[in-house]
Amino acid sequence: TGNDVKQLQMYFIAQASGPAARALKAHGTTKNFGVLTQSALIEFQKKAGIKPAQGYFGPKTRGYVNGGR
Length: 69
Fold this sequence. Notes:
Radius of gyration: 11 Å
Low-confidence stretches: none
Number of helices: 4
Largest sheet: none
Mean pLDDT: 93
Number of strands: 0
Strand content: under 5%
Shape: globular
């Protein structure tokens, strides 16, 4: 929870990875990491080629988001 989650949600919305990101946008950002955020994360990970795409915001995904691709 917190502003970090809200920033992550805004990032996924901006990336527009697919239906989960659109659903998150329609719902609006919050400070809670719930099902919509996890779905958008999985969708983003798949698009970015991050494996495993399990909806865990760990070092691989964090590095990608921070520009470390």
